[in-house]
Amino acid sequence: MIIIMKHGAAQGEVANVVARIEQMGCQVHLSEGEERTIIGVIGNGRPIDGEQLARMSGVERAVPVLRPFKLASREFHPSNTVFPLNGVSIGGRQVITMAGPCAIEDRDQLLDTARAVKDAGAHVLRGGAFKPRTSPYSFQGMGHEGLKLLAEARQETGLPVITEVMAPEQVPLVTTYADILQIGARSMQNYALLHAVGESQRPVMLKRGMMSTVEELLMSAEYILSHGNDRVILCERGIRTFEPYTRNTLDLSAVPLLKQLSHLPVVVDPSHGTGKWELVAPMAMAAVAAGADGLIIEVHRSPETAMSDGAQSLKPSRFSDLMSSLALVAQAVGRTI
Amino acid sequence: MIIIMKHGAAQGEVANVVARIEQMGCQVHLSEGEERTIIGVIGNGRPIDGEQLARMSGVERAVPVLRPFKLASREFHPSNTVFPLNGVSIGGRQVITMAGPCAIEDRDQLLDTARAVKDAGAHVLRGGAFKPRTSPYSFQGMGHEGLKLLAEARQETGLPVITEVMAPEQVPLVTTYADILQIGARSMQNYALLHAVGESQRPVMLKRGMMSTVEELLMSAEYILSHGNDRVILCERGIRTFEPYTRNTLDLSAVPLLKQLSHLPVVVDPSHGTGKWELVAPMAMAAVAAGADGLIIEVHRSPETAMSDGAQSLKPSRFSDLMSSLALVAQAVGRTI
Amino acid sequence: MIIIMKHGAAQGEVANVVARIEQMGCQVHLSEGEERTIIGVIGNGRPIDGEQLARMSGVERAVPVLRPFKLASREFHPSNTVFPLNGVSIGGRQVITMAGPCAIEDRDQLLDTARAVKDAGAHVLRGGAFKPRTSPYSFQGMGHEGLKLLAEARQETGLPVITEVMAPEQVPLVTTYADILQIGARSMQNYALLHAVGESQRPVMLKRGMMSTVEELLMSAEYILSHGNDRVILCERGIRTFEPYTRNTLDLSAVPLLKQLSHLPVVVDPSHGTGKWELVAPMAMAAVAAGADGLIIEVHRSPETAMSDGAQSLKPSRFSDLMSSLALVAQAVGRTI
Amino acid sequence: MIIIMKHGAAQGEVANVVARIEQMGCQVHLSEGEERTIIGVIGNGRPIDGEQLARMSGVERAVPVLRPFKLASREFHPSNTVFPLNGVSIGGRQVITMAGPCAIEDRDQLLDTARAVKDAGAHVLRGGAFKPRTSPYSFQGMGHEGLKLLAEARQETGLPVITEVMAPEQVPLVTTYADILQIGARSMQNYALLHAVGESQRPVMLKRGMMSTVEELLMSAEYILSHGNDRVILCERGIRTFEPYTRNTLDLSAVPLLKQLSHLPVVVDPSHGTGKWELVAPMAMAAVAAGADGLIIEVHRSPETAMSDGAQSLKPSRFSDLMSSLALVAQAVGRTI
Question: Do strands D88-90 and D83-85 pair parallel, antiparallel, or not at all (unpaired)?
């Protein structure tokens, strides 16, 4: 932490800041320029509350030196987190594909789609049973019935399943059905929920909030990690900008950035990230070229009748074509799919 | 709903869309231009799933004609929602001021601040017992102990209290202590929580998410209203933009916009909205001039030692000065404080 | 400038940075923590190229300590810039109102509107002769003919005029007609244009770019000031955000922020800032309450036939009512209008 | 154009709108629902001023049906624009790479870098002689001297050159030296400049403004095209968002979107798009995978002493490695480099 004093800060103000820092058990390095006095805080690992120091009289601002996340950081854990799931490795050389419908709508729709994505080479089946919807009047998902259908689809295809959990009290139920728990973008800072999945025994895929920085995503991962669950997958799914042609702006630069800052696997969701099925294939290919460890893609057997997100869903045949194209890109960057 | 067909859409595609609309029980008005065919959907009150129609073959896009919120809309409920709270009216001619510390830290801090804001003329005491924090390593609030102190402060000062509730399972506990339940910005789309407070018997202040549109705020209000609770207060607290000098960008134009679109009372939070105490007073005055029904302001007896948000907290003496200035602005726009 | 070295930076890397700083003629203060080495650069007024230092081997980042603007800063020039214009003072106790049509369309339209805004109490007439338009197919303004009409309106009403200049080669022509040169939001970083108006003998109103920070606005003012023109007026006119209900998001917190950082007068444009005439009056009142030194408001005798920006223009009668309301708010904050 | 009337609009208001539309020479299709009246405007190619109609009494909003760009649109010009440049084709199957220093600093720096990028396989040399800088105190480029060095580098390496032009009066000078004129992000809506390069005989690379939508980029291209120059290259270079870790957010989804909406070639600038050299290579690969027709990349022989943008510049050896990796990705998507 570095404390920058205001131009013309009084001697006494500097002395007060120094005293406070020493009370915290930290050391002080003082630099007195003609224009400003700068105070370096040497914490040697102690957490320092910069916000408090920033508010002291005569202080202009406090500049943090260390990143605020630790368990999620690559500095703390230099090698990649890799963990097995149903015969494949998440975070390894192979790019993992999760595919399926946005929402589970009925038995036939789910099973048909599950078979189709399995045939196309997907590794994990996705499907929402609890759906966060902006409007209280929209379809809210099939709930427990949907989870049962998911279990049936897993049984039949052998694919592990990922599904969203929206509230802490749903965690026990969803955990009995899901191989990976998904935390949706709107729940990224639902701390009670992060706490609950942090105590579960399931891998968690944490989606970046549409309004959240890369650092905040890592801080939310830190919540899960600090509750004992070290199988966290990060997911970039588009952020909100001023651009109206796409539903969100898919921030692919977050992929190499997250890989640099953290050891956790990074998955990209080009379906929500663009909101338009025509853009899903090019952005999926771009994601793999940028270094993503996986993709999560919405596939629906008849997008035009889907109960949610049809505009961004691929038909099974297009998904199958995409898997072939992805194999070439993966190979070009030294990976498999 | 209006359906805009693609340039060169086939006759059969148009016919399919028309058939689907008629299946929904709606009427169709067809406009065939040389460049595009446009299909008007006359629903006469029926909910129309435009997303589904937009995905049909040959369709370019679907344009909604009606606003997606109903219970929250002024069209549906032309007169202002006004309700009494402890001798004052929320949503009426008087501008309501809620003030107090960001977080409850200890008994003396809370009681001292409570007395100070009461003396300065505040109508409601604010204080956080459950604190949503970006970092798992930051102070998370005093929890139930904090709520008890809040009850003591209410007892002593006679001020009703507002405090945040972060999870559905906390609602029963917080409801026994709070006069107004606060839904924080990060929880604006926590639907399980909106459901829970919608079924409670307490007024709810719903804060706009930091990257949520005005329409999404009203849709979240719609969740609460549709669960039977009609005492909802909307709160503008700043949105996230590219500007780094302020913590958020306080969107004051949301005040007259919300008053136009909705009948619900609108409160402004200039403390979170700016993140800098020097900007709180001018923005509080601007909020009243723009038509806000209330203000929520962080006051701390010694901001430089506050455990959260000290940089944006006013000292009691400054808050008292602000209340005097606000009285003049309120009078200038035909209101009292 | 403070240089933060990477975790584990080598001794030699630190030595190289120190040597480079000393080459620049600056002094060094070294703080070696267990986690990081921090190097303070004491420039004593010398400009330091932090970007260069940030790129050296072993450096994590460089944190500037001083603001990058000088002539525009209040530290450098503590008292407000106030200058006379046609009998009123810009930047003084009186709030200045500039009003008129977005674009000059014909003689009658301009003269009628000019008389109306004069009668309502406006101090300056606005009107665009050169119009920056997103589409090459939209009306681009009357050009020189429009300037002549502006001169006629000034003659008749006695109001000084403000009009936009879009290119360096237009500056001599526009200067012969305008009392204040306006730099539009899209031109805020048109440096050739800033240079040209910096060398003119006219006051300049510089509008904030729709996605420019407060600091960038001040840097663009610095360009004008550094070319010898010290009569610069800053104008907040809304920034671009994700919110679609308003054309822009009017950032009123920029008003007290600019007044704190700079000595230059600050004007607010609630017409472009909101894009909706219904929001103009409440936001104009809020701007005055927040401390604005002036307002610029679009007024059109028949907004529904205006050739540009009709949706955000006030009719003369509404503008006249607004002036009465503004007088009360101005009085409440110790000013006149 | 579709006109949506307000709930409860009067018969006379509808009649007035209809009359105005008919005056414009357009036909009307009326849809009267129980909740709203909708008026379809059939223009058959006539430009319709929706803004004017939107302001008429009783109108809620006007929804455009056609895109506002024509010459730039793929509907108007279905096949890709491809044009030759010095033996290669811009917009064809080959991915074109432009590389070189951000700013031309001296003869050795430019010639060394030019040779290096040529050896690595680049097709075009970039180098800035006129530099738009936020601060008037930063290095503003070598100007005419820089252009002469560029000519020398072209002579020696045989590479065509691209360089920025910042003002209309510079166009004749820059045209005598440059093979491609670059319009920088801050100039995207400098209409006098677009006009000037539209009348020049040189290809133009138009960079997206950091605050500009895809549609606005295409409208600025439309300005150039409508002045007779049909060799326009679009460039995505990152947009401004709330994310602070990267300088801009590179919007790669703009690549397939622009290819879908327009026939013009699309180039990506991962250097400005990320601001960090570590992210340049992964984002360059992602751009090619997403379908970009070219890349523009900053290369500097010693980034740590570069006079601008060193943090985002690659060393020649890294650029050479990147070219090898790009060849594999290009091949994977059926292209060459």
Answer: antiparallel
Check residue C56 and report its DSSP letter.
S
B320 CB contacts (<8 Å, ≥6 apart)?
A: B116, B119, B120, B121
Q: Can you give the residue range of the structural domain that contains A13?
A: 2-63
Q: How buried is B268 (Cβ within 10 angstroms: 0-12 exposed, 13-18 middle, 19+ buried)?
A: buried
Q: Examine the pLDDT at D42 and tell me if it is beyond 90.
A: no
**Of B12, B29, B63, which residue is a domain's last?**
B63
Q: Is residue A337 part of a domain?
A: no
Contact A187, B190 (CB under 8 A): yes
Question: Measured between beta carbons, which residues in chain A are less than 8 angstroms from residue D329?
Answer: 289, 329, 332-333
Is the separation of the CB atoms in C83 and C75 below 8 Å? no
Same domain for D10 and D148, yes or no, is no
Query: How does DSSP classify residue A7?
Result: T
For residues D150 and D276, membership in a common domain is answered with yes
The CATH number assigned to the domain holding D244 equals: 3.20.20.70
For residues B334 and B294, the answer to whether their CB atoms sit within 8 Å is no
Please report the ipTM that was assigned to this predicted complex: 0.91
Number of residues that make up chain A: 337
Interface probe for C, chosen from A21, A37, A241, A242 (most Cβ of C below 10 Å), is A242
Position C110 in a domain = yes
What is the pLDDT at residue B56?
A: 83
Nearest to D310 among C52, C137, C210 (CB): C52
D51 shares its domain with D103: no
Shared domain check, B324 and B197: yes
Asked whether the beta carbons of B294 and B98 are under 8 A apart, the reply is yes
Q: How far does B328 lie from chain C, in Å, by closest CA?
A: 5
* Tokens matching residue B319: 């808050």
Quote the DSSP letter at residue D154: H
Give percent above pLDDT 70 in chain A: 96
Tell me: do B50 and B118 sit in the same domain: no
Residue D31 lies inside a defined structural domain of this protein: yes
Same domain, D45 and D107: no
- DSSP one-letter code for A79: S
pLDDT band at residue A259 under the 50/70/90 scheme: very high
pLDDT (mean) for A102-107 = 94
| pLDDT average, residue stretch C100-124 | 96
> Where is the domain boundary, C31, C63, C95?
C63
Q: Residue B41: enclosing H or E segment and its boundaries?
A: strand B37-42
10-residue averages of pLDDT along chain B (337 residues): 83 89 82 77 69 81 81 92 95 98 94 97 96 87 96 97 96 97 97 97 96 96 96 98 94 98 98 94 98 97 75 92 98 97
Tell me C299's DSSP state. B
- Sheet containing A27-32: which strands, arranged edge to edge? A27-32, A37-42, A2-5, A59-63
pLDDT at site B312:
86
Same domain, yes or no, for C257 and C192? yes
Q: Does D211 touch chain A (CB under 8 A)?
A: yes
> In degrees rounded to 5, what are phi and psi of residue B29?
-120, 120
* Range from C18-32, D9-23, D103-117 carrying the lowest mean pLDDT: C18-32
Q: Total structural domains in chain D? A: 2
> Which residues from D are below 8 Å from C56, CB to CB?
304
Residues of B in contact with C213 (CB under 8 A): 242-245
Phi and psi at D59, nearest 5°, equal -90, 135
One domain, residues B89 and B56: no
Q: Give the pLDDT confidence of A154-178 residue by residue, as tens digits.
A: 999 999 999 999 999 999 999 999 9
Cα–Cα nearest to B57, from B91, B99, B10: B10
pLDDT digits (tens, 9 = 90+) for C283-337: 999 999 999 999 999 999 888 777 767 778 999 999 999 999 999 999 999 999 9
Domain assignment present for residue C232? The answer is yes
Q: What is the CATH number of the domain that holds C8?
A: 3.30.70.1140
